[in-house]
Amino acid sequence: MQTVAILDFETTGLSPAQGDRATEIAVILWREGQIVDRYQSLMNAGRRIPSDVAALTGITNDMIASAPPVAQVMREAAAFVGNCPVVAHNAGFDKRFWQAELAMLGSRADHAFACTMLSARRLYPHAPNHRLSGLAQMLQLPQTGRAHRAMVDAEMTVHLWHRMHDDITRNYGLKRVDHALMSRVQVTSKDKVPTLLRSLAQAR
């Protein structure tokens, strides 16, 4: 049985290359359709949160001031993820912060990332948009709280990941939908995804 780590960051901005830092992380371990564990923490990286970002996320500078240091949180998060492959929505964003924060600690960060946004673009090409909130609304996924907080967005990504698994199983008869398969889907052109999934179902 494969366990994947579904994670989400909140940050001070869009790019660690521009000096932005993580302010919150949430990680959910998901195995065979079930949440088996979760980790969440604010973190203090010594970087002020711009007012527009604080308004979006609800994470304030006062909250960060009393949060544990970023080094502690990222070490805990890395230990929690272990060797699991990782899933995130708009994974390029989260992967950049994951790698940047762990690089500062000298820790390995070579985890394979799958992206629910890229996969959703292939599986739901006619969705009005492929933002997490838009897909959640279209697919009527459970919403557990305010968007742009790490655990809420991670939970929504879990529901989307699960729904995509169910839709592939139902529509193509594939019983085994894993991280590697979803990673193939996300880099296949949308018009070729049905052929790919049908061929994999026949091969199995």
UniProtKB/TrEMBL annotation:
<dbReference type="GO" id="GO:0003887">
    <property type="term" value="F:DNA-directed DNA polymerase activity"/>
</dbReference>
<dbReference type="InterPro" id="IPR036397">
    <property type="entry name" value="RNaseH_sf"/>
</dbReference>
<dbReference type="GO" id="GO:0003677">
    <property type="term" value="F:DNA binding"/>
</dbReference>
<dbReference type="GO" id="GO:0005829">
    <property type="term" value="C:cytosol"/>
</dbReference>
<dbReference type="InterPro" id="IPR006054">
    <property type="entry name" value="DnaQ"/>
</dbReference>
<feature type="domain" description="Exonuclease">
    <location>
        <begin position="3"/>
        <end position="170"/>
    </location>
</feature>
<dbReference type="InterPro" id="IPR012337">
    <property type="entry name" value="RNaseH-like_sf"/>
</dbReference>
<protein>
    <recommendedName>
        <fullName>DNA-directed DNA polymerase</fullName>
        <ecNumber>2.7.7.7</ecNumber>
    </recommendedName>
</protein>
<comment type="function">
    <text>DNA polymerase III is a complex, multichain enzyme responsible for most of the replicative synthesis in bacteria. The epsilon subunit contain the editing function and is a proofreading 3'-5' exonuclease.</text>
</comment>
<dbReference type="GO" id="GO:0045004">
    <property type="term" value="P:DNA replication proofreading"/>
</dbReference>
<dbReference type="InterPro" id="IPR013520">
    <property type="entry name" value="Ribonucl_H"/>
</dbReference>
<dbReference type="Pfam" id="PF00929">
    <property type="entry name" value="RNase_T"/>
</dbReference>
<comment type="subunit">
    <text>DNA polymerase III contains a core (composed of alpha, epsilon and theta chains) that associates with a tau subunit. This core dimerizes to form the POLIII' complex. PolIII' associates with the gamma complex (composed of gamma, delta, delta', psi and chi chains) and with the beta chain to form the complete DNA polymerase III complex.</text>
</comment>
<dbReference type="GO" id="GO:0008408">
    <property type="term" value="F:3'-5' exonuclease activity"/>
</dbReference>
